[in-house]
Amino acid sequence: MLENSKFINQVSIDCVIFGFEENELKVLIPKINFSGDFYALPSGFIYQEEDIENAAKRILEERTGLKEIYMEQFKVFGKANRKRQEFMDELISKNYIDNIEEVKKNPGYAWFTNRFISIGYYALVNIKDVKPRLSAIDQSFQWYNIDQAPELIMDHPEVLKEALKALREDIDTKFNVFHLLPEKFTMREVQDAYETIFEKEFVRTNFQKKILSMDVLERLEKKFTGAKNKAPYLYRLKSE
Amino acid sequence: MLENSKFINQVSIDCVIFGFEENELKVLIPKINFSGDFYALPSGFIYQEEDIENAAKRILEERTGLKEIYMEQFKVFGKANRKRQEFMDELISKNYIDNIEEVKKNPGYAWFTNRFISIGYYALVNIKDVKPRLSAIDQSFQWYNIDQAPELIMDHPEVLKEALKALREDIDTKFNVFHLLPEKFTMREVQDAYETIFEKEFVRTNFQKKILSMDVLERLEKKFTGAKNKAPYLYRLKSE
Fold it and tell me: Where is the Nudix hydrolase domain (chains A, B) (predicted)?
């Protein structure tokens, strides 16, 4: 199982991967490859000789196949009672019927059920770019609408909730929303993404004015729609 | 020295304590009680049975005497090369002239010079409320103007810089600025604090409109200044 010395003890990384499709905000949730219907956020540990940013990138690449991915560290989860004990015991009871006690004697069990501090990252992807890969512990994974996610293990529901909160808080200062869209997008698509994320409507003219005043978009050609006069402009994020 | 088992290994907390006085943004910086003029942000470790929030509160109370303190977790510092090795070796060379090698054999030395992940918190205080206390490793401490802080050890200059960035980013969403002021304050005092933090001036009428539109302040009596007609109103943060 896990070798203590390779990873930093008692510290993990939990990732929330958001995507946007058909006017729905979605989240990528793996199902763990054990009996018992366990769903968990993409997670991992930090190698002793690895920057935490690189660990997060590695964990995200493992699931999405994407090397360059927009991510933000958003919160550390550090309650004293933050342990995998209950989850691990349930998992073991449903998977190792004959040798439960043996499994619990494994040094990996003690390591894994210790108290963990978890660093939360959220990532924003254009769903069409993702080349999903199963990690060693995934049975499958799926994009879920944000309000239709399956029940998650441990405190992962709280991690997901806090990621969504951070996504909203960051939206006007970090211009993160554009990373949910294709490379070229219309102003309508930006507004759709905002309206979905905030679950409310914005007045079109004010919205457009606000977005353009951020001065981070570059206006491109018109989008070909067949009706030349009404074709909307395409935009993309200015390169830095 | 340090007992491994009591604290979480390889994780520390670094705090940046901001105050505001005479239109200057200030930061509280302790000088370490060893020869060599070492300045370090208030820091500490997390007990195995302690929430990280409580660890941060404990570390902040230790320095300020304040039990209730406004704080925000702002960033995790987690480079693989984030170690105290150089600092410790310099400290030891200036303080343990006769028995350097003995000191290095102490198990605490290995623990302390390991790679550490540090969770950054910034705190906002009203300087007049602080009842400064020296911790076990402080020789003294002092409030410095933000741009006149002494040279800090390790990556603490970066921690300070990121804390200031977070303070600015949070200002309009978390209403944190009010925690730098006395319980009752004038709109002019709020504007002074904003102008100091952002190092720029705001137009008075627009500024006032913006602050009042946040809808978090309660208007109180006028401040007695001797000139009744021109006395400004006092405000305070609404209780939640």
Answer: 8-166
Q: Edge-to-edge, what's the strand order for the sheet holding B233-237?
A: B185-186, B233-237, B217-222
Cβ contact, residue pair B76, A80, below 8 Å? no
Gap from A166 CA to chain B (nearest CA, Å): 11
- Render pLDDT for A131-163 as a digit per residue (tens, 0 to 9): 888 888 899 999 999 999 999 999 999 999 999
Q: For A52, which residue in chain B has the nearest alpha carbon?
A: B78
- Neighboring chain A residues of B48 at a CB cutoff of 8 Å: 80, 115
Phi then psi for B141, rounded to 5 degrees?
-150, 170
Token pair in block for residue A73: 């560290």
C-alpha distances (whole Å) from B29 to each of B134, B152, B207 are 11, 9, 32
Closest in B53, B73, B78 to A51, CB measured: B78
Predicted complex ipTM exceeds 0.85: yes
- CB < 8 Å from A in window 194-213 of B: none
Q: The tokens of B183 are what?
A: 């319980």
Closest by CA to B19, choosing from B132, B147, B211, B179, is: B179
Helix (H) or strand (E) segment spanning residue B121: strand B117-124
Record the tokens describing residue A166, joined without a space.
């951070």
Interface test mutation site (partner B, options A14, A54, A117, A158, max chain B beta carbons within 10 A): A117
pLDDT digits (tens, 9 = 90+) for A164-197: 999 998 888 888 899 999 999 999 999 999 999 9
The neighbour count for residue A50, using CB atoms within 10 Å, is 20
Compute the distance between CA of residue A145 and CA of residue A63 in angstroms, rounded to an integer: 18
Domains identified in chain A and CATH numbers: 4-176 (3.90.79.10), 181-237 (no CATH)
* Cβ–Cβ contact B73 with A under 8 A: yes
> Containing H/E element for A144?
strand A138-145
Q: Are B55 and B13 in contact (CB under 8 A)?
A: yes
